[in-house]
Amino acid sequence: MPSAPHFFVFAAAALLMAATPGPNMVYLISRSICQGRTAGVMSWCGVVLGFTVHMVCAAVGLTALFLAVPLGYELLKFAGALYLLWMAWQAVRPGARSPFEPRTLPTERPRKLFTMGLLTSILNPKVAIFYLSVLPQFISPEAGSVLAQSLVLGTTQVCIGSSVNLLVALCAARVALWFSRNRFWLALQRYAMGLVLGALAVKLLGQQRSA
């Protein structure tokens, strides 16, 4: 099983990634504001299932496949860093919008809300990159079953990511209203997000492949 220090560092990394606005957060904020908390929670249920799909895929060997092929791992790491840099640029570029500025979305039925949340989560490259590039750094064959470690760490990520996204869905309107009245903090949030994403990209590029 993962050691306590490794576990807590992983949990901190999962929290940082969950708190960094991405497709899931933008969708949940917009949906909650446009259609209400109930719609936001229904969409959130789909997002959670998407997290679980990513976790199961990683646990059954997708991560091991990339670790076993050096070129595949390096290409994935490079692509992940580029994506994070692109997200950082989107946050700080002139005319950029904060995720806390909602997008207008049409009213949808519960089943479609769930499906859209699921697809947004499954197709979210930030989640895939986390499982394929970050999670393997915390798995050590010497600590026991790789599958068991993957499940423990993956479940931790699902719990943390789900909690953050549920909080976003429930508080979206209040948070968006506060930011709309405090434009300075809205701009500061964008630049802080860009800085964090850029730092994550540099860290990802500097990571060494596990032996």
Oligomer type:
single chain
Number of strands: 0
Helix vs. strand class: mainly alpha
Rg calculated over all Cα atoms? 17 Å
What's the SSE pattern? HHHHHHHH
The helix tally amounts to 8
The helicity comes to: over 70%
pLDDT below 50 for ≥5 consecutive residues: which ranges? none
How much of the sequence is in beta strands?
Answer: under 5%
- Give the end-to-end Cα distance, rounded to a whole number of Å: 18 Å
Task: Please summarize the sheet with the most strands.
Answer: none
Mean pLDDT level: 78
Shape: globular
Would you mind describing this structure in some detail?
It is a single chain. The chain is mainly alpha-helical. It has eight helices and no strands. The chain has helices spanning 4-19, 23-35, 37-68, 70-92, 110-122, 125-134, 146-181, 183-206. Helix 2 runs antiparallel to helix 3 (37-68), helix 2 crosses helix 7 and helix 4 (70-92) packs across helix 6 (125-134). The longest helix is centred in the C-terminal third of the chain and has 36 residues, at 146-181. The chain is globular, with a radius of gyration of 17 Å.
Topology at a glance:
Blueprint: H1 4-19, H2 23-35, H3 37-68, H4 70-92, H5 110-122, H6 125-134, H7 146-181, H8 183-206
Helix pairs in contact: 1-7, 2-3, 2-7, 3-5, 3-6, 3-7, 4-6, 4-8
